[in-house]
Amino acid sequence: MPEEKKKKKVSGVCSQPLIHEDIVERVQKKMPDENKLYDLAELFKVFGDSTRIKIIWALFESEMCVCDIAYLLNMTQSAISHQLRVLKAARLVRYRREGKTIYYSLDDSHVQQIFEMGMEHILEG
Amino acid sequence: MPEEKKKKKVSGVCSQPLIHEDIVERVQKKMPDENKLYDLAELFKVFGDSTRIKIIWALFESEMCVCDIAYLLNMTQSAISHQLRVLKAARLVRYRREGKTIYYSLDDSHVQQIFEMGMEHILEG
DNA sequence: ATAACATATGAACAATTGTTCATATGTTAT
DNA sequence: ATAACATATGAACAATTGTTCATATGTTAT
Question: Residue A125: what pLDDT?
Fold first, then answer.
C-alpha cells in the first residue's frame, strides 16, 4: 500500500550501544547458567503438547498400560508410544513390565504443582 | 535387513476392546475439560523456548525495554519483539510506553513458582 | 518353533515454529 | 513537515515436531 518513501537511513534498530546499561548489567549478573535455562525450556517443551499433557494428567490418577492410554485418549498405540518415549526421556514417567503389558506411571513430584500453577494462570482469564 | 518373514496376521495393536476397563473408566471421569488441557499445553508451549525463558527470567529481575533485552540476550530487536508478542498473548508480560521506549515487565504471579518447580526437576538429574 | 499380542521404532509427511529481512508504525525533537 | 529512533509486523525460509504407516522386538502360551 505505501508508495516509495524517500527515507534516507534505515538507522534505528537499537542503535544505541545500550540504553540502560546499569539495568542490563545487573540483570546479566543474575541470569542463571545458559545451559540450565536451555534445559528448563526443554522440560516445558515436553509439557507443551496436549497429548502429553493428557497422558500426564491421566497418570496422576492411576498407572496404565499403553493400550489403556491409547483407548482413553482415542489415539493410536503408536502415537502414544512415541509420546511416552518423550516423557521417559524427560524422566517424567517410569514403567514396569508385567508379561506382555507395560505399565506407565508418573515419576515426578513436581509436575502436579507445576500443573496446578499453570491451571491457576489459565483460569484467571 | 530382515528377509521376508512369513507372518500371517498383523493382528495385535490394541486388539482388545479394552484391557483395564475399570481403570480407564475411573480415569476418564477425573480428566479435566478437553479445552482446559489444551490451554494448559498452550501455556507450557510458551515456556518451551529458551529465548522466551530467558526473557521471562530477565524480567524477574527488572522491567526492561526491548533494546535492553535484545542486547542482554545478544539477539535481534525483531526476534525479541516477536517473542514478546507471544508472551503478551499469553498474558505473561505487560508493557508501558515512555516516549519512544516501551518497557516490558512480568505480569504473573505463578510463573516464578512454575519455574522453580521446573528447576527442581532439572537439578535432580 | 510358532502364533498371538503388547509395545517400540524408523521413515515419511504435513503442520508448526523461530529467526531474519525489509519495512511499517508511533513518538519526539527540530 | 521531516529526520531519527524504538518498536512492531508480514513474508519467507529453515528447522523442529507430532502422527501415521509399516514393521521390528519382546513375552507368553501352545
Answer: 65
